[in-house]
Amino acid sequence: MPESSEGLRIVVAGDRAGAPYAHDLTGPVADHPRVGSLVQVGLAEEPPYPDIAFAAAQLIAGGYADRALLICHTGLGMAIAANKISGVRAVTAHDPLSVEHAVTHNNAQVLCLGSGIIGLALARDLTGKWLDHTFDPAGRAAAKVALITAHEQPPASR
Fold first, then answer.
1. Residue 38 forms beta bridges with which residues?
2. What CATH class is the domain 8-157?
3. Residue 1 has pLDDT above 90, yes or no
4. Are strands 90-92 and 110-114 parallel, antiparallel or unpaired?
5. Are 113 and 122 spatial neighbours (Cβ–Cβ below 8 Å)?
6. Domain ranges across the chain
7. By three-state DSSP, how is residue 22 classified?
8. For the chain, N or C: smaller number of CB within 10 Å?
9. What value does the CA radius of gyration of the chain take, rounded to a whole number of Å?
10. If you ran DSSP here, which 8-state letter would residue 12 be given?
11. Residue 40 has pLDDT above 90, yes or no
């Protein structure tokens, strides 16, 4: 989804293990120049991580949010759950190159981080880099992303 003139609409959420990071990263995300608004997931106290990931991914798939930053202990469960929602590409990344390529080569809308894997300073740095990068729909990677998108459709409509 292209960025609107009002800026990116971002979901920031975490489960019990990721909530402290999610809380800390909300300010820097809101202050980033490309961000227009934060979108709340609106879940009850301490939901299991799949519910958080599903809610965030459904906001993206429904056009209510552009990206989501999801934090759990490893980032893996959040990514697996978010990827169950058609039209959503979620990755777990813990280094700058993976974060860059997730956006620029794979058009991933969801970045999942692990609070048990990386420190808060690195999480802040990676989040800023994630927000800095954009996907070029006319670039070399667009055809590969289109192949992935084509497989999200039921076999009869491919």
1. 10
2. alpha beta
3. no
4. parallel
5. no
6. 8-157
7. helix
8. C
9. 15
10. E
11. no
**Both structure tokens of 149:** 């998108």
Nearest-10 Cα torsion for 31, 50, 64, 5? 30
Give the Cα separation of 76 and 90 in Å (integer).
10
Please identify which residue in the block is written with the tokens 């992935």.
148
- For residue 55, give the amino acid letter: A
How many helical (H) and strand (E) elements, i.e. helices and strands, does the chain have? Answer: 6, 5
Q: What angle do CA 102, 88, 5 make, to 5 degrees?
A: 80
Q: Just list the catalytic residues.
A: 72
Q: Count Cβ neighbours within 10 Å for each residue of 114-146 and write b for 16 or more, e otherwise.
A: bbeebeeeebbebbebbbeeebeeeeeeeeebe
Sequence length of the chain is 158
Percent of the chain with pLDDT over 70: 91
pLDDT band per the 50, 70, 90 thresholds, residue 43:
low
